[in-house]
Specification:
CATH superfamily: MFS general substrate transporter like domains
Shape: globular
Pfam family, one: Sugar_tr
Number of helices: 20
Oligomer: single chain
Membrane topology: Multi-pass membrane protein
CATH architecture: Up-down Bundle
Family: Belongs to the major facilitator superfamily.
GO cellular component, one term: membrane
CATH topology: Growth Hormone, Chain: A
Order of helices and strands: HHHHHHHEEHHHHHHHHHHHHH
Largest sheet: 2 strands, antiparallel
InterPro entries: MFS_dom, MFS_sugar_transport-like, MFS_trans_sf
CATH class: Mainly Alpha
Mean pLDDT: 83
Length: 511
Amino acid sequence: MGLDFLADGGADFEHAITVTGFGRFHYMLLTLCGLIYMDTAIGVTILSFVLPAAQCDLEMDSTAKGWLTASPMLGMLIGSYIWGCLADTKGRKIVLIATLLMDGIVGIVSSFVQYFWVFLIFRFFNGFAVTGAMGICFPYLGEFQPTKYRERCLCWMEMFWTVGVIVLPLIAWLIIPMDFIIMSNTFYFKSWNLFVALCALPSLMLGLWLFTFPESPKFLLECGETDAALEVFKWIYSRNTGADPETYPVKCLQEKAKHQDKSTRSLKLLKRKDLKVLFAEIRDLTSALCKPPFLRNTALACVIQFGLTSSYYTLMVWFPELFTRFEQFEHANPGETTSVCIVSALSDNTTFFDPYGCDTIIAPSVYLHTVYIGLACIPGSIILPLFVHKLGAKFFLIFSLVVSGAVTVGFYYVVNSMQNLVLSCVFEALTSLGISLVYCVIVDMFPTNLRVMAAALSLTMGRLGALIGNLVFGYLIDLACVIPIILFAAFLFACGFFSFLLPRTGKDTLD
């Protein structure tokens, strides 16, 4: 390696992280961040199984289900930028711990709730917390990686999301059908309550595990805390090589010219004067994202997230209902075929007699179809990290968006439940791949002091798209089924076009 860097006043980040080696620490960090991402997959999709299981106990009609589905989305919309701002000013690790512990505690408490509106409020805060973990885990992981391994490590995260999508219906299938109940005159705790509590435990355990990991050395360097960053590099070197930390070959690091973030990290959020300084810093960073040279990348990230996320979450929420209606039609009309637009307009006559679905039993096929959709993501999750360094994240992002747009058009021509399941599997595999790839690209597109905030801003636009998408879909599906299909297909094709305009990523050291 040589020691020429000492003549310049110290080693830069790329040299410092490269000489730590790539070993045990990086594998443990990937495992931790991957499990966090898997946990967010569970947190985002858990309601798809809670809704039918809890509808009788919480007295939920269709309108109430709509409110409950929107509640965590609204929490994500509000929480995305708040957590991103805090992570770019106070630090990645501390904010990531806060989001995980909050999600775990709120999730466990919500499992004991007896009333719909209280449960709805708790799910809002679950969404508020889980979006912070989702937005921060990618930058946190990426800022520990040398350029050679960064893109590949980030792409392995998609596999953990896939595992989360597969594990959740299996846990639901195991727990929800159980004949389990604890009841008194004023309190009940059933199998669905147990399911909610169990799904909250990983957040608590991951938050506690994260205490044993260091702050991002890239972030510490950006804040001018070179001594703290050097200690982190020594610690990583020791974990990777088994050698004494003091034998780490780098003895000093390059100083940052600016240290404005250092004072921000030491601010107390409970003091009004310090809060004013913090808000001023957040305003300046937000303003920087909306001005050249970052404006173009910010706009592209936000537009792609809006179109992709609105299509993904809207259609994924609709798929289970569509499965059920296809099965109802095929049961009532054996051997006949129908279009997706006809089956989507079918009404459920049982709601008049059983408005809260107290007689509803979740069919095993609902769990099984969700498992199939998760299994369909595995090939892409393996292919992506193996070939991303050769073809680039941008290539895979464009491919996933354009093909998923074509699949969305294909839904119009579906005539039976099997075709619907196949297209649903392909759609989930490609769009979930696209969402992970957007995070990978953002890590490279922005400098350290703006990285999490840029991810948070794009995530906020994505959640806004998901909210609007669900409202538009619910309104238009009864008026003209073809319109929302064309709309979301157009969104995905447009996102594919805008992805062509993204800069090349994965080849240069982090700014």
